Amino acid sequence: MSTIAAQVVSTRRLDLLPLHTDHAEEMATVLSDPAQHHFHRRRVTPPKVCVVRGLMSAFREIVGELREFAPWQVQLFATGCAQRLLPLADACASERTARLYVQGLDAAWSAASAAWREELAGTLDQVPEMSAQSSDEIEYWALRSVLVLTYSLRADLAGDPAKLGRRACSGALELHEAIDDTLTHPEPTGTRTIDPRNMPSPGPWENREIAAERATLAVLRASTIREAAVAEVHSLSADHADDLREVIPGFLRAGAWNDGGTFHNA
User: How far is CA 52 from the centre of its chain?
Assistant: First the structure.
């Protein structure tokens, strides 16, 4: 199955745009209706929740600062996000994709040539997991992690680095939120209603990701050259990933994707 890329659909009267976190402010009005949050399956809930949460101060603070950073700083920020998601990609992807993920991280951390990073990103764009259609498939969680990695590989090559940094931030927060949500509400029955006027607080893993992103920003603010920041951002991100690796088997069991996951790069 080939990957379906979201595209603008133009008609005589309007243009239909693919929904993205950048649209959070406009979507907040739409999602203020509680009826919009009544689902028959829990696993479609987290992205909707995170769109509204995109307005919370932590997210706005982080992405606001990214707009002021140099391209290399944004690229390192996004690479930290991808490093922290390594256990999720490792457990949910095929062995080949897991190897490509590690190869992509190595290229992103080392600031490999633009041509090599683009080639790796292009290869990741075509991995089979990118055809996953819903969060009911284990490959979906690899897809979401791989997307964050491609943002990091391309961040300082793009015309708007902050946009890719913002997408990496959003993707990492959404995935950590999904981990919290799944561990808290494993295999629910019936329906679950989330009132946007009383949004649940971020869970422990989403809070840890927020803390890691803020710590990365602090390192980048204090660094004037890339080499000085790489070791610190890599260290804090690798520590986070080591801890996250411990809960991923439980996340997969709670979501009934498999019996606990197989790590390719333990």
Answer: 16
Who contacts 69 (Cβ-Cβ below 8 Å, separation ≥6)?
A: 77, 161, 162, 165, 220
Side-chain half-sphere CA neighbours of 256 within 13 A = 7
List pLDDT tens digits, range 7-30. 667 666 676 777 665 565 555 555
d(CA 117, CA 99): 15
Cα 196 to Cα 204: distance, rounded to the nearest angstrom: 20
pLDDT tens profile 25-55:
555 555 545 455 444 334 444 444 444 444 4
Distances (CA, A) of 10 to 15, 19, 23: 4, 15, 18
Q: Which residues contact 234 (CB under 8 A, 6 or more apart)?
A: 80, 83, 109
What is each CA distance from 258 to 134, 181, 251, 254, in whole angstroms? 16, 17, 10, 9
Is the whole model's pTM more than 0.85, yes or no? no
